[in-house]
Amino acid sequence: MSFALPIALTLSALALPIIALYILKVRLRRVPVSTNLFWKQIYEEKPPRSIWQHFRHLLSLLLQLLLLLLIVFAIADPYFSWQLLQARRIVIVVDNSASMRSFDILPTRLDAAKKAAQEVINGLRFRDEVAIVLAGNTPEVVVGMTGHAPTLREAIDGIPFSDNPTSLTTSIDLGRRLIGDHPHGQVLVMTDGCVDMINTAETKTMPSTGKAAVAKTESMPSVEYRLFASEAANVGIIQLQVRRSLIDPLGYEILAAVKNASASPVTCRLELTLNDIPVDVIPLKLKPEELWSRSIEKTSLEGGLLKAALTEIAPGSDESVAGAGSKQTATTTNQPEVDQLPTDNSAYALLPDRKTQRVLIVSAGNWFLQKVFESNALVEVSVQKEFPQVWPVDGIIVLHGNIPETLPPGNVFVIDPIGNCDQWDQGEILENPIVTDQDKASPLMTHIRLDNVLVPDARQLQFKTPPHSLAKTLSGEIVYADVKRPNGKCLALSVNLDSSDLAFRTAFPIMIANSLGWFSGTTGELQASVPTGSVTTLTVQKESIDASRTFLLSPSQKVLDITIPAPSESDSGDIPATIGPLNEVGLWKLTQSKVDSAQLKGDVKDSIAEVAVNLASTRETDLRPLKELRDSSQTKTLTAGWFSRPFWFYLVIAACILTSVEWFLYHRRFIS
Amino acid sequence: MLFPPDFLTRLEYLSIISKRVFRGQLLAQRRTMQMGSGIEFSDHREYTYGDDLRYLDWNVYARHGDLLLKRFQEEQDLHVYLMLDCSRSMAVGEPAKFDLARHLVAALAYIALADLDRIGIIAYANGIVAELPVTRGKARILPIMKFLEDLPTTGQDTNLAKAVQGLIHRGTRTGLAVVVSDLFDEHGFQRGLDQLRYRRFDAHVIQLHDPGEANPVLLGDAELVDIETESVRKVTVTERNLKMYKELFVNHQSAVRDYCHTYNLGCTQSPSVIRFDDLIMRMMRESGSGR
């Protein structure tokens, strides 16, 4: 036996005053009475038992000394070597992924898992150590190895719900690393089994039927799974993205996918709203296990928050799914729940705004050129035949034909230039040039094919600075180029619009639309919605950022601090801000406030950047556990046995019992 | 002051009340069974030669021709012996039992004297420690009160039997013997009362006790000192012991009551916190209803 606090044994010296007090005679109080007649009868009725009479005072002393000894031992905290040898190291991996919000197991799967984890803590033995790991998007150690049960209980109680996907395998690996090479290590996984796969090394040794799914290799701690799931049905949105149309300046495309993760048909409605204004309502009749996916085209000048919501979810009949003309829903109250997880019933996406661009066309006159710009609803076109006195500082200047000696600053699109300028010299006329080389990677050439365009002639341009070629002829002459210059963007197209059929081709409006987008500087045709748990990078303008007052606002209006590196002088207009992990479904905002984060209230309006976060996980939507886990995992109590508490605890119990005995003996005057 | 100034007034009041209530049932008005020359008719007997013709019932002779002699109940002076326990145990209590006992003795003496009876007071402890000879007349009440006031509590061993024996050895006439005591007599109160009965004393017991004796507030370790014998007993008093004590005390009270009931003795038991005149009134009521 060893002691954790051997110095406490010196408290045994307290026995000396106890013995001294025992030796000292206590003077009794004198009570005069009328007669001893009755007292004599009382005490003569109990003749002294000689042996007891002799020992009862000594017994009192011995009891008191034993009491002191027990307390001193309890303070010294004794322990045995076998306790150290048999101590266990347990890592409780708690899956708090989105699917654990399901209420097929009341109140929720996570609550049931937490309750089971508490029971494990209750069953710990003395010297056992436990760590708690969260199997969220990224494994997180909530509490390191400790045997302090209150800390563990508090940590388990504090495990939050999340909308993250599961990272069970990495969490188990982390648990194993925490255990190390301890001989009595065990990883206890509290999960709903909503994972695509588990580690082969774990599953292959799991018995197909049995009480516990315990996998153990020679070098690794055993892994035991506790399953908190049923064959719950669910239907959810697993994909929602929106992007601007490539051909329609006002248009946008919605990509939505809905999964019926159940063995029975389901009817529901997919409601789409843009800034809370209804966009579309699509009735869905989903067969069992059906994945419904569709691209929906809509138009809107304004961007904003696009929300998709599943409503009126109800069990469907086979007829309603198969027959188009049959009844839409067959909802009855006695049918089972078909949607056990509300998290994936909503999804969000951000539609970028479209901004109006001003275009000044300086041309002797080309009807096609003017109309191709005017056809774009986002463009305000003005046409001049002569060069203006003052060039506009914003917008796009389209020079057709005549060009000034020095190109104006800003965004300039030069088409079929005549004469020399500061960027190039005009060469010979190219007859029947055939475009054979296009920069397909450039956004300016997206969806454009110029190789089959009939071009009778084009002007050869001899650039003073090597440009970025967008289209070359067979002979290597550049007919469409991105001219590099310091004072603005510049595109040069040397094709004669009047003689070629480019203006008749669909490539031409696409080319113009691409150029408008390129000039506007926005590549944001798609501001992708990200899945929960991910880390993403938002682009914010250098001028608008103040790192000390920038915060991240979650969908539930929680204010989170964020670290944004202060922009340096060399940074261009936009700087990246990395945020995450985004563990909640909804719209996250990068906000800037005039007050501190502590004073920041929920209603913050000045958002610098936004990102939509969706569950977007087929496996989290499918609430049915993995078959291997379902077949094998069952509860098994980590029983502590009788001797589960530290030895001092039993010493204190013994001391309490002894105190009671002593009190009883004294109260009953057996010892007096 | 043992006897306050209005004490005599209250005694007079008691005396008047006693005559109204008892009407010949107490003290001197209690008739003897001896036939004699009293004025109250008792019965007839046949005339024999030599009888006093003055007692012949002529009316009976006139009607029936039978010579019957009228008999009358003889009236005698009643001797009342007031036996006052003045052992140290009587000094216990607040007020002390002894004070109430002396008030009672004085009151009973006054009532008896007012009824033209003869009274004697015997103060006893382990024997007779003081004695007021038999006397009569209401005027004797002041010496009686002086006698009572001068009485101390004394003695180390209460012994009623020895006191009664002393009374008998004095050759006193039988009469009414009123014992005022707590009856904490280790020799047994029965012996003394037995002797009174054997000598044809009409005994009446007034047993006083202090409430603290009936319900002692005592727990834990203590040295119990008997104030009479000064014997010390080291005890640890528990709730159970207290309960047993109370049972024994009640049993002792019951034993006194049962004894008196068995032998048709008067018995009055009272705590010492009662006023003497209230207790006298209670005695009167009990005597009026019971005897």
- At the first level of CATH, the class of the largest domain in chain A is Alpha Beta
Radius of gyration of chain B: 23 Å
* Overall SS class of chain B: alpha/beta
Number of helices of chain A: 14
How large a portion of the residues of chain B is in β-strands, by DSSP E?
Answer: 15-25%
Give average pLDDT of chain B, whole number. 84
**What is the fold-level CATH name, i.e. the topology of the largest domain in chain A?**
Rossmann fold
Q: Going across the major beta sheet of chain A, what is the strand order? A: 18-17-19-20-26-25-24-22
Averaged pLDDT of chain A, please? 80
Sketch the major β-sheet of chain B: 6 strands, mixed
Query: What is CATH's topology name of the largest domain in chain B?
Result: Rossmann fold
Structure in words:
The complex is a heterodimer of chains A (672) and B (291). Chain A contains 14 helices and 33 strands. By secondary structure, chain A is an alpha/beta fold. Chain A has 5 domains: 93 residues, no CATH class; 171 residues, 3-Layer(aba) Sandwich (Rossmann fold); 117 residues, Immunoglobulin-like; 164 residues, Rossmann fold; 87 residues, Sandwich (Immunoglobulin-like), CATH 2.60.40. In chain A, the strands form 8 sheets. Chain A has an 8-stranded mixed sheet. A 6-stranded mixed sheet of chain A has the order 6-5-4-7-9-8, sandwiched between helices. Chain A has a 5-stranded mixed sheet with strand order 27-33-32-29-30, with no helix packed on it. Chain A is elongated, with a radius of gyration of 40 Å. About 5% of the residues of chain A have low confidence. In chain B, α3 packs across α9 and α5 runs parallel beside α6. Chain B is α/β, with parallel strands linked by helices. Chain B is elongated. Chain B starts with 6 loop residues before the first helix and ends with a helix. In chain B, β9 and β10 form a beta hairpin. Chain B has 9 helices and 11 strands. Helices cover 39% and strands 24% of the residues of chain B. Chain B folds into 2 domains: 228 residues, Rossmann fold (3-Layer(aba) Sandwich); 39 residues, no CATH class. The chains are: A alpha/beta (672), B alpha/beta (291). At the A-B interface, β2 and α2 of A face β9, β10 and α8 of B.
